[in-house]
Design a protein that fits this description.
2 domains; 3-stranded antiparallel beta sheet; about 10% strand; single chain; elongated
C-alpha cells in the first residue's frame, strides 16, 4: 500500500487523536462525514453571516429564486437541505429582515404565499460569486470524476 493511502486511511484517527484504528468502517465513514460537514459548513456559515444571513435563510432564498414565483411555506420546508421544523418562524424572521414578502391567500386564509423581495434577490446575487469561490476552494483537490463519485456515494448512503 502507498503512504498516501495509509495517510488517508488513518487520517481521521490521527486527526482526532484516536490511539487505535477504527474497527468499524461505517462508524469511521460517519465520523469522517460529520467532521467534514462541520469544517465545510462553518466556512459557509461565516460567509453568510457577513451578509446577515443564516444557513436556513440562505437555503430558503435560493429555493424561492429557483422556483421563480411565490411558494407556500410547506413547499419551501419540503425542499430545505436541513430539516426545518419551524418554517413559519423562519419566514417571519425573513419578512422582518425584508428578504421575503408573505401574503395570505384570499380563498383560504390558512395558505401563506412567500415571495422573494428585491433585497433578498440582491443579497443572493452578491453571494453567488463568493459562494462559488468558496466551494471551488473547498473541493480544489478533487477531480470532476471524484466529485461525481462523492455525490453518488452520499446520495446512496441517504437511501
Amino acid at each position: 500500500m502507498s503512504s498516501k493511502h495509509d495517510n488517508t486511511r488513518n487520517g481521521l484517527a490521527n486527526e482526532i487523536g484516536k490511539r487505535t484504528s477504527f474497527n468499524c468502517p461505517r462508524q469511521e465513514a460517519y465520523l469522517n462525514l460529520m467532521r467534514t460537514h462541520a469544517l465545510l459548513s462553518t466556512q459557509v456559515s461565516r460567509l453568510l453571516k457577513e451578509h446577515g444571513l443564516t444557513d436556513p435563510q440562505y437555503n430558503a432564498l435560493r429555493i424561492l429564486r429557483g422556483e421563480g414565483k411565490p411558494m407556500q411555506t410547506y413547499q419551501i420546508a419540503e425542499r430545505m437541505i436541513s430539516l426545518q421544523t419551524d418554517i413559519s418562524r423562519l419566514v417571519e424572521r425573513m419578512v422582518a429582515a425584508g428578504l421575503v414578502d408573505r401574503n395570505r391567500s384570499e380563498d383560504d386564509r390558512r395558505v401563506v404565499w412567500v415571495s422573494l423581495t428585491e433585497k433578498g434577490q440582491s443579497i443572493l446575487q452578491e453571494l453567488d460569486a463568493p459562494i462559488n469561490q468558496l466551494h471551488e476552494s473547498q473541493f480544489q483537490d478533487l477531480t470532476q470524476k471524484e466529485l461525481n463519485s462523492l455525490s453518488e456515494l452520499l446520495f446512496r448512503a441517504r437511501r
